[in-house]
Amino acid sequence: MADLTYYIYASLILLIICLLVIIVLLIQNSVDEKRLKATPSISKQDAISTAFASIKINASADEVFNVISSFKHYGSGHAQYTWGTSSEKHPTVGSKGLYKFHLEEYQDRTIPVILTLLDRKNRKIAAKSTSYPDWLLSTERVQEVLPVVGRSGICEYRTWQTLQGVAAYYPLLTASEDLDDLVRDAARELKEFVDRRKVKNVK
Questions:
Q1: Where are the domains of the chain?
Q2: Torsion of CA 104, 109, 112, 116, to 10 degrees
């Protein structure tokens, strides 16, 4: 009887190990390494997933960067930041704030972040979540504005959000498309805001 119990337990342990191996292989196959992008704090090697969006905007690169670096809310206010207190009008690297975002079929979320990059010369900003330790779950979003060579008055806005940590596999498997929509909607909303403002200025 004891021998039978031993073999049953051994079989169950072997089955669990096999299932874990299958799960790991499925997760690894879900990681699209070609899509992964590094951020100031997350290397490409540590990245689990990246959502990326790019859009052309009919405005100069400086004009668009001034909008995102002013940190004033526009449109829905989603995928935007609130920094420190009302007296802290110009956050600097290391400033703490909140990042508000919206995912379809999920509640609106607000998470604590820290400003990790504010490069006005190269028109680039990045902020990283601070809710959990990096090994568990961390996300960093980068925004940059590039002039379009040979096209005056037109720029390219790029934004990407990279996740790292063991818990990052969950959104990779369950909400990858939602994260893609999040950055695409953020890019589109910025373009619409800049377009509306230019129309008002013309009037």
A1: 1-30, 33-202
A2: 20
